[in-house]
Amino acid sequence: MDLKLREDDLAFQREVREFLDRHWPEDVREARRNTGRFEETKGESPEVRRFFDALNERGWAVPNWPSEWGGTDWTPTQKYIWDKETARAECPQLSAFGARMLAPVLYTWGTDEQKERFLPAIREQKMIWCQGYSEPGAGSDLAALGTRAVRDGDDFVVNGTKIWTTGAHVADWMFCLVRTSTEGKRQEGISFLLIDMTTPGITVNPIHLLGGIHSVNEVELKDVRVPVANLVGEENRGWTYAKGLLTHERTGIAGVARSEVALERLKAIAARTAVDGGSLWDDADFRRRVIELEIDLEALAMTELRVLSQVEQGGAPGPESSILKIRGTEISQALQVMQIEVFGYYGMPYPDQTLIDNEGPVGEAYAHAAMQAMLYGRAATIFGGSNEIQKNIISKAVLGL
Amino acid sequence: MDFSLSDEQSLLKDSVERFVQNDYDFDKRRKVMAEEDGFSRKNWQQFAELGWLAIPFAEDDGGFGGGPIELMLIMEQIGRGLVVEPYLPTVVLAGGALRRAGSAAQKEQYLAGIIDGSKLGAFAFAEPQGRFNLADLTTTAKKEGDGYALSGHKCVVLNGPSADFFLVSARTAGDQRDTKGISLFLVDADAKGLSRRDYPTVDGLRASEVMLDGVKVGKDALLGDADAALPLIEEIIDDATLAVGCEAVGGMEVLYKTTVDYSKQRVQFGQPIGKFQVLQHRMVDMFMEYEQSKSLMFMAAMRLDEGYNEAAKKAVSGFKVQVGKSGRFVGQQAVQLHGGMGMTEELAVGHYFKRLTMIDTLFGNVDFHLKRYGSFD
Ligand SMILES: Cc1cc2nc3c(=O)[nH]c(=O)nc-3n(C[C@H](O)[C@H](O)[C@H](O)COP(=O)(O)OP(=O)(O)OC[C@H]3O[C@@H](n4cnc5c(N)ncnc54)[C@H](O)[C@@H]3O)c2cc1C
Predict the structure, then answer these.
(1) pLDDT value for A3
(2) Closest ligand 1 atom, CA of A167?
(3) Does residue A341 have an active-site annotation?
(4) Domain B231-374 adopts which CATH fold?
(5) Neighbour-count burial of B202, counting CB atoms closer than 10 A to its CB (0-12 exposed, 13-18 middle, 19+ buried)
(6) Domain boundaries, chain B
(7) I want to staple B342 with a disulfide (CB 3.0 to 4.6 A). Which of A108, A396, B139, B335 is the partner?
(8) Which of B269, B273, B341, B344 is the best mutation target for the ligand 1 pocket, counting ligand atoms within 8 Å of the beta carbon and taking the most?
(9) Residue-level pLDDT at A5
(10) Which A residues in the span 192-231 are in contact with B, Cβ-Cβ below 8 Å?
(11) Cα dihedral B281, B286, B289, B295 sign
(12) Which residues of chain B have pLDDT under 50?
């Protein structure tokens, strides 16, 4: 057992840092830090576009993909370094729905045409995807989904309503779970379809989340014709594909490296927050709570490394990965709440973005973004399989209860 | 010991409760918030007619002679309805200062207007560097001729945008955090040299940054004694702390009940989610947090009713600690148990959650009041 990075890993780390510092420099980081905009776009702001282009040029856009589709053959340690460094640099991420969730399904079960058509565009962030799983009656109980797809010649005709669809208002495509059979087990009548969002019959209605954030939508599908060529894998096997994908979602969701960055920022802002002639960081009660969180986070980081090393030895992340989701989201929520606390009264103002653009922030520049993060952050224990559902998984699959 | 209400108190409670139930559902509240002021002037007039704006003031001043118990009854209902009309800043804060320290002329000029609903006030006590320390002031009031000139920056002044007048704490002597040398002034909103930056707060209320740049006031603008206002300020803030704590208790009651109702209706895995034992226990915890908060609410109100002393201050701080912790738990779990629905602006749940989060900050958070509680014997 050994935690030290080897010399070649250190060299890799330096290389990564140099790249990130060049293509995502500190002044850009600082400017983006203070805007709490919640938009899933194609990264059209010029500096973001340039960054994604640079990633692609360097061959680092999708490290986890197979190398034939532009992935890397990095060791797990290198991937770990990459995650840490990109979090530290606070650089933009490719839209996760395409790059992290759909792509593994496509390169595992897709046809050659599907791979050719979609994977390069996802890698270059030129095609944005949304995930159409949840429905009004099917949230935690996803298998209850009822959006129907009925075969008609070379098309499926799709009818139903999806809800909470993140980014549907900016997405080009949606990967969707639909019911193709009502016979047998509920899970065995579900198929995995790729739907072009410009197809007639699709209506996207915005849903406003706390703090006025628009990221999710309701998507109505009315007689939407989807070519059979857009079915992934076999009909009625969509559940199996989606489940494989959910495990990917679960490890990503731990967000250890992001929480480490948030923790450091929390400390820095506390240290410059005046309290009675000293700083908030001098306050033993406050400091104790931050340090407790730091130790929780260290434990989680090590747990994640243990899961990763299991994967390295040939396993897929097992039900233990639920620990990462539960603890990861608990810690990030706790950090978000403490960040608001640090601002004191300046955690309260919530001017709209145009006002901030015109007159500057009220109080701390970062406070508005931090409030949005706190409000939106409540969703982290709800989506991707709620934390209650994760605990059900652990109690069943790990503890055998 | 007696936990029962007098007939008059019951009538008051019923009247506010009826208003919240009949005239302040979530849709009506949304409309009211969209009005220019962010609340309804019409409602405010109705409050005046119903006598609520007169509650805490002495009968000699045209009031009703109510105390902390009456304040509790009103604020709990305000919390249940998430009422946005500026009762706290106008009646509790500005009114609280005037009724305790106002001269006959000041009462005539301002208090009468509060009671009949024609004047709104705000208390500018906080400063950017001061956090929750009421004595940490850099705003100065310098003697000038017969009066004073005020300069400084007051932050997050609740109801700033609609206030006709401000109460401003300022330093007339001493250093930044000295407990002596603090005075209170009445400053009209249109005074020369006073400027504001207005904005909404995250819970949908309105507040302002108030900048004072050599604002001249006469010596009749001084409220109470010069250099000795800190105890008065502390007393007003303790009243206000009780008030927002009661609001939080009202909010928690709505949240735990709404969540229980929702869990009976929402079906997943072929059964109402309220059948899952882990959620049952969670809701029991929410209920217990509410009950514990309510107990300390009674304690704080009754101690304040006995007189303003250390026991009362301690009870208020203890209550605020409880409400801070319970409010956070109940708010977060209400959102969690509603799933995606709890995250939306469309449902009331999230709005209670936001208000509870702000109440945790107002007048000192959990850490602040823990320390304050511990500072008393
Ligand atoms: C911000 C946000 C973004 C989202 N983005 C997407 C997206 O892009 N695509 C998509 O398809 N979906 C998305 N979702 C939907 C998300 O996956 C669902 O919200 C989630 O599955 C929970 O479903 P629900 O909201 O219907 O809550 P419900 O399933 O109704 O759950 C309500 C509560 O009951 C609990 N519960 C349910 N069943 C059990 C049980 N058996 N035991 C114990 N407790 C239980 C839950 O944990 C929760 O606390 C998003 C949601 C949010 C909030």
Answers:
(1) 75
(2) 8
(3) no
(4) Butyryl-CoA Dehydrogenase, subunit A; domain 3 (1.20.140)
(5) buried
(6) 7-118, 122-227, 231-374
(7) B335
(8) B273
(9) 83
(10) 207-212, 216
(11) negative
(12) none
**What topology does CATH give the domain A129-236?**
Butyryl-CoA Dehydrogenase, subunit A; domain 2 (2.40.110)
Give the tokens for residue A39. Answer: 């938009």
Q: Which one of A285, A348, A381 has the shortest CB-CB distance to B207?
A: A348
Calpha distance A389→B267 (Å, rounded)? 15
Atom of ligand 1 nearest to the CA of A388: 47
Question: CATH code for B7-118?
Answer: 1.10.540.10
Show Cβ contacts of residue B313 under 8 Å, excluding neighbours closer than 6 positions. Answer: B234, B238, B372, B376
Residue with tokens 């009818």: A159
CATH superfamily of domain region A254-397: Butyryl-CoA Dehydrogenase, subunit A, domain 3 (1.20.140.10)
- Nearest of A254, A273, A240 to residue A343 by alpha carbon: A273
Give span(s): CATH 1.20.140.10, chain A: 254-397
How would you class B269 by CB atoms within 10 Å of its CB: exposed for 0-12, middle for 13-18, buried for 19 or more?
A: middle
How far does the centroid of ligand 1 lie from the alpha carbon of residue B341, in Å?
9
Give B254-277 pLDDT, tens digit per residue: 999 999 999 999 999 999 999 999
A46: exposed, middle or buried (Cβ count in 10 Å: 0-12, 13-18, 19+): exposed
DSSP strand E in B139-274: where?
Answer: 140-144, 147-158, 165-171, 182-188, 194-200, 206-217, 222-223, 267-268, 271-272
User: What is the CB-side half-sphere exposure of residue B230 using CA atoms within 13 A?
Assistant: 17
Q: Which of A135, A249, A260, A304 is catalytic?
A: A249
Ramachandran quadrant class, A330 (left: phi over 0; alpha: psi -120 to 50; beta: rest): alpha
Q: Residue A342: in which H helix or E strand, if any?
A: helix A321-342
Which pair of tokens denotes residue A216?
């999710």
- Position A224 scores a pLDDT of 98
Total number of residues shown for chain B: 377
Nearest to B75 by CA among B355, B310, B366: B355
Split at pLDDT 50, 70, 90, the class of A248 is low
Residue of A nearest to B127 (CA): A345
Separation of alpha carbons A72 and B86, rounded Å:
60
A96 neighbors A129 (Cβ within 8 angstroms): no
Strand positions, DSSP E, A317-387: none
Share of chain A above pLDDT 90, in %: 73
Extended strands (E) in A137-212: 148-152, 155-163, 173-179, 190-196, 202-209
What phi and psi values does residue B59 have, to the nearest 5 degrees?
Answer: -60, -35
Beta bridge partners of B123: B167
- Rounded-to-integer distance, Cα B372 and Cα B313, Å: 9
Check CB contact under 8 Å for A163 and B340: yes
Q: SS3 breakdown of chain A: % helix, strand, coil, rounded to 5?
A: 55, 15, 30
The widest CA-to-CA distance across chain B, in whole angstroms, is 79
Radius of gyration of chain A (CA): 22
Question: Same CATH topology for B7-118 and B231-374?
Answer: no
Q: Are A226 and A195 in contact (CB under 8 A)?
A: yes
Atom of ligand 1 nearest to the CA of B278: 43
Give me the pLDDT at residue A365, please: 85
What's the fold here for domain B122-227? Butyryl-CoA Dehydrogenase, subunit A; domain 2 (2.40.110)
Identify the bridge partners of residue A202 per DSSP, sorted by sequence position: A221
B197 to chain A, closest Cα gap in Å: 9
Mean pLDDT of chain A: 91
Phi, psi of A164 (to 5 degrees): 65, 25
Q: Which long-range contacts (CB under 8 A, 24 or more apart) does A303-309 make?
A: A303/A327, A304/A251, A304/A254, A304/A256, A305/A80, A307/A251, A308/A76, A308/A80, A309/A76
Nearest to B197 among A216, A346, A359 (CB): A359
